[in-house]
Amino acid sequence: MITLEHARHYAYEISHDAEMVERLSFSFERAAGSWLEAMEREERTGEIMWTSTESEREMQVAIEGILSGYARVSLMLFPERNSGKRGKMRGEMLRLQLGIGEDHPIGNRILRNHWMHLDERLDKALAQTGEVPIGYILARPGQFSEDVRKRAFRFVDPADASVYIFGERFDLRALADAVKHASDCAVLFMFPRNLRESTDEIKSTE
């Protein structure tokens, strides 16, 4: 049996991951801006900008963290279908207490499964095409064909903060928003009294 106290511990983990995702989202946006600026200057002047390499690494680290945090929160609320009775009960309990609907974007299993089962996806691609997909491609819009995007495990478009996983586009900002909303629900569940008091205090000053 999962009690309300147990649920609060899970909710804390959700809020913890959300804080990490939020910080990494800011890091990605900053690095993406620097990378695009460096690329534009390289094209214009022919000068090699080492900041592009630094920004590329920062984006890669941020993406790994954002997708990992997203996957963990998703698994908390929408466990794997084969997770057993306890996993099913935990997911239902948390969604009920946090007010998370079945259609919440945090429950996107397509992205999560791509990310959490990378080894199986690579095996499948190798069996189908005879090639292991390219790990990372970082590019601006129109720089690579649709076919190349499909052949890359991670095709990153910094201009619109998106990542293509095996050709399927995912909006990093939307993912971060989904995690934040789940976290906001978790905080409301953990500290309902404090939230009500803060709201009353704001109203009294208006």
Descriptive labels:
alpha+beta; globular; 4-stranded mixed β-sheet; single chain; 206 residues
Describe the structure in brief:
The chain has 206 residues and is α+β, with helices and mostly antiparallel strands. It has helices spanning 4-45, 50-77, 84-98, 109-116, 118-129, 146-151, 172-190, 192-205; strands at 134-138, 152-157, 162-165, 168-171.
Mean pLDDT: 85
Record the strand order, biggest sheet.
1-2-3-4
Q: How many strands?
A: 4
Number of helices: 8
How would you describe this protein?
The chain has eight helices and four strands. It has 206 residues and is an alpha+beta fold. It has a domain at 4-110 and 171-205. It has a four-stranded mixed beta sheet with strand order 1-2-3-4. The protein starts with a helix and ends with a helix. Residues 195-206 have low confidence and may be disordered.
List the helices and strands and how they pair.
Layout (H helix, E strand, L loop, with lengths): L3 H42 L4 H28 L6 H15 L10 H8 L1 H12 L4 E5 L7 H6 E6 L4 E4 L2 E4 H19 L1 H14 L1
Parallel strand pairs: 1-2
Antiparallel strand pairs: 2-3, 3-4
Helix pairs in contact: 1-2, 1-3, 1-7, 2-4, 2-7
